[in-house]
Amino acid sequence: MVPRTRLSTSVLLTCAAIGVATGALQAAAGAVSAPVSAAAPILYGLVLGVHVLPGVVAQELLRRPWVALITHLIAALVASAVVPLWIGRYIGTALLIGGLQELIAATSRYRRWNAWRFFLSAVIVGAVIATAIWFAADVTRFPPWGQIVYVALFVVGPVAWTAVGLAIGRALRRAGIARRSRG
């Protein structure tokens, strides 16, 4: 049986709390992205990977439909409050990543929450972002090995941040937050 899609106030408030925390982290990542791109551009994928965090934490903790997308949108609004000029980027990223995370979860009808599913989602997100960056950035400025590493880190970044998000979600679940966010 597919879980109910109606979300309680406590679930929405939990999404909001996760969104605020991860949105602040996304704003910080946005603040360091320009210096990282200038000083060590090959590491930009690791910084950009933080954008998977809202959905991973929300899905691991709450295990319900729509929580990834809702949490991503709240995080995008928080990050946009810090950097209003990037509201389009933050909302677009939230829709892309949150939508992909929801799509992967929907394929199992929101019944299976194994870690491999989260990592599969991270690899897909990383591949989509790496493809977009390949065309948007001047990747040819790097030697061939640098091009490979640059693109690979756009996949490794979301995977690494997914591991962090799973750990946070599990810790919150052990603390009993999921029990308080039913319905």
Report on the architecture of this protein.
The chain is mostly helical. It has one domain (about 10-180). It has eight helices and no strands. The chain has helices at about 10-40, 45-50, 55-60, 65-80, 85-105, 115-135, 145-175, 175-180.
Gap between N and C termini = 15 Å
Flag low-confidence runs. Answer: none
Contiguous helical run count: 8
Radius of gyration: 16 Å
Q: What percent of the residues sit in helical stretches (DSSP H or I)?
A: over 70%
In N-to-C order, the SSE pattern is: HHHHHHHH
The proportion of strand residues reads under 5%
Q: Mean pLDDT score, rounded?
A: 91
The total number of structural domains is 1
Helix- and strand-based class? Answer: mainly alpha
Overall shape: globular
Largest sheet: none
User: Number of DSSP strands?
Assistant: 0
Give a brief outline of the structure.
With 183 residues, the protein is mainly α.
Helices and strands in order:
Layout: H1 9-39, H2 44-48, H3 53-62, H4 67-82, H5 87-107, H6 115-136, H7 144-174, H8 177-180
Helix pairs in contact: 1-3, 1-4, 3-4, 3-7, 4-5, 5-6, 6-7
